[in-house]
Structures are given as C-alpha cells and as structure tokens.
Automatic annotation (TrEMBL):
Gene3D superfamilies: 3.30.70.100
Alphabetized SUPFAM superfamilies for the sequence: Dimeric alpha+beta barrel
Positions of the Stress-response A/B barrel domain: 5-100
Superkingdom per UniProt: Bacteria
The protein's name: Stress responsive alpha/beta barrel protein
One of the Pfam families matching this protein, by short name: Dabb
Annotated source species: Bradyrhizobium sacchari
InterPro entries: Dabb, Dimeric_a/b-barrel
PROSITE patterns listed in its UniProt record: S_R_A_B_BARREL
C-alpha cells in the first residue's frame, strides 16, 4: 500500500474518580501531542478528549496521518513513541485502532 495513511486510536482509561480520569486524559493528550515534529513521516497529530460522558464512550482519541505505510510501521517502534507508551504504563484499560489509506479527492 502506498500513499498517505490515517491512524486512529481510541482508549478507555483508568481512574476511580472523575478527577483521576480527567488527569489521565490530560496526560495522554500531552504526551501524544509532544510527538509533533519529532517523528519522520508523521504529518498530522491531533488528540481529542471525550465530552459526551456516555458510559460506552472512549476517553481519548488519537487522530494521526503518515506519509505512507512504511512511516506508520516505523512509528510503532520509534523511540519517541515507545517513550510515550512507557510513560502511560497501565493507564489504558481498553484500546481500539483503525488504520486506512487516505483517498485523494479531486474537488
């Protein structure tokens, strides 16, 4: 597969209280946004925190884009990405991921 690829990950996070969950959300957002400009081939990164408060919602979503599949594959083992994963430890209790090619539209 060649061309740009979108990588979306959603997490449910630990936390007994609303304050603990809020702190966990902020930590995930801060750490992943810190990757901006630090990984070759990562062209866009955005982190959103859920505001719906429905019981089936994920807490945080990572929306990122890479130049191609090779860049996404390299990201998985990049030292900066691994540093973020290590810093998050067992904060995550659920993880969902979708990767798909970005189709160029000629509007």
């Amino acid at each position: 597969m060649s061309g740009p690829i979108r990588h979306i990950v959603m997490w449910r996070l630990r936390g007994e209280t609303q304050e603990e969950r809020s702190a966990a959300r902020i930590k995930v957002k801060t750490l992943f946004e810190g990757l901006k400009g630090r990984i070759d081939g990562l062209t866009h990164i955005e982190v959103g925190m859920d505001v719906s408060a429905v019981d089936y919602a994920c807490d945080v979503v990572l929306f990122s884009e890479f130049t191609d599949q090779a860049a996404l594959s390299a990201y998985a083992n990049h030292p900066e990405h691994l540093r973020v994963r290590e810093a998050l430890g067992d904060l995550r209790i659920g993880r969902f991921q979708v990767d798909y090619p970005i189709k160029e539209t000629g509007a």
